[in-house]
Amino acid sequence: MKTLLHINTSLFSDKGQSSALAARYVERWQAANPGGRVIERNLAEHPVAHLGAERFQAFLADAADLTPTQRLALAESDTFIEELRAADAVVIGLPMYNFGVPSVFKAWIDHVARVGVTFRYTANGPEGLLDDRKVMVFAARGGIYLGTPRDTQTDYVTHVLNFIGLRDIEFVYAEGLAMGEDIQRQALEQAHSTIDALAA
Fold this sequence. Notes:
Elements: E1 3-8, H1 17-32, E2 37-42, H2 53-58, H3 68-86, E3 89-95, H4 103-112, E4 119-122, E5 125-128, E6 134-140, H5 152-163, E7 169-174, H6 181-199
Helix pairs in contact: 1-6
């Protein structure tokens, strides 16, 4: 049975444009994999706590030294990592906020990028410890940034996922969504066409 991890990061939950694009892909994936399982991780409805000193120490300390709060933080991190490991493919709905990724997505990254668990340092540099799998990123943006210095998302997401071992990454962009109805319609039509082709 195939498993798909579906991560939404929009503050608008399922009503965000990036969420709608991701949902379109998930719907078509389910049609092509009727026995498949979808793991839903909605970071708007269930936000991840941002990494503070106590929470970070939970990832480094011996189990016997953990406080009750740290044990909960470690269990949450373990859950996110196990969801990644269980998935044959990953879908991420990713809006752009202030030229970056949503803070809840950065918090999720901070919980899955764990030394000794999803990556390690070697004499030849860092090595990702997760087995590679397909990652689809559906990036919705109010302006047009692809190929410009203001697109901080593409490189960041690529680098951080590569760092933990995920290298098969594909982006689908819908840009200019706040630049008028015609540009929005054309951008969404193009993204929908790409999604349908990818899921076919």
